[in-house]
Amino acid sequence: MNPQFSRRLFAVTLATAGTVLVTPMLSAQTKPEVKTTEKTKLTMAVDSRMALAYLPLTIAQQLGYFSAEGLDVQLNNFADAAAAGQALTSGAADVCAGTYDRTLNIQSKTQKFKTFVLLGRTPQLALGGSTRSPAYMQMSELKTRKLGVTALDSTSTVLIKLLMQRAGLNIQDIAFVPVGSSAGALNALRSGQVDALCNIDPIMTTLEQKGDIKIIHDARTLNGTIALFGSLVPSSCLYASSDFIQKNPQTCQALANAVVHSLKWLQTAGPGDIINTVPANYLLGDRALYLAAFNKIRESICLDGLVPDEGAAAVLKTMSRYDNLLMTQNIKVDTTYTNEFARRAKLRFKV
Questions:
Q1: Which one of 71, 109, 166, 305 is CB 3.0 to 4.6 Å from 342, fit for a cystine?
Q2: What is the rounded distance in angstroms from the CA atom of residue 198 to the CA atom of residue 200?
């Protein structure tokens, strides 16, 4: 028998879907039971689980928010967004924790994908040049250099192309090197495999504090994001196939509830709360450094799980400038995400 969903989730699903039968009122000593064919034991592919972009998932798991919603969630770690997305499309995962732009990249004629709750409202990326001799401190100095990105078709690549065009540089003047978003990215910069790096935290803060890089552009901040895209943009999120979402609305609602609950907790969490909740191995052996990285991305954390309409449109427009496939697919942006689950969770948790 599947685990039970909460009373609130049952009420929401009944009101919106009309597909759940109401059982007679039970006594105060008996919990109501919702029988469903939906999945409550899930495999979630995560793009770099230790990355701060996915901190809300860590909080949800550590504080029991998934289990409180009747879910058993297994978080499987992957080195980058492309690998996590592949796990979803191949059927190895039910849901993916990745970046919104992946829902655009993996659309196909036979299978569509949707974001259904948002974790981050900026790209949560920073571009930094190596400080080794010769040091690379600005865009013009990166011409003909090797630049590390999380993946070739990722937001990190698009961000660099935007910055290059603003600096009057030709996109062909830089060699993009995919290095993932975990320890491999650190090693690539420090070993000289790349001359600059566009990546996420805690990687970028680690390199910055150790004196390995100098930040050229910071798209972890709200201002840095708006300067590039004209608005805040959806980034880290949960997404799944449209078919999965249609067949498992209660499951998706439960996931959205757990995430929004985490987002609310993070709004007021202090340094001690973070340190005491995050697994010790996530702290990289340096609590102060981890907290410094958290402070870098704190304002980028979504407040309520909702995908901003203008931000989603901005991502699609920008990605389409550099991706011929996206140009020809004629994707309608409103089909790539839904806010129905986050809206209910927002009301429930009053965020």
A1: 305
A2: 7
Q: Give 295-349 pLDDT, tens digit per residue.
A: 999 999 999 999 999 999 999 999 888 877 676 678 899 999 999 999 999 999 9
* Tokens linked to 53: 């972009």
Residues 6+ apart with CB under 8 A from 54: 46, 47, 48, 97, 119, 236
> Token pair 């680690």 is at which residue?
206
| 19, burial (CB in 10 Å: exposed 0-12, middle 13-18, buried 19+) | exposed
pTM attached to this predicted model: 0.87
Give the count of alpha carbons within 13 A of 99, CB side only. 31
**Which residues have C-beta within 8 Å of that of residue 30, sequence separation ≥ 6?**
none
Contact 6, 69 (CB under 8 A): yes
Q: How far is CA 70 from the centre of its chain?
A: 23
8-state DSSP, 139: G
Q: Which residue has the tokens 């990326």?
A: 125
Which residue, 62, 53, 75, 51, is CA-closest to 282?
Answer: 51
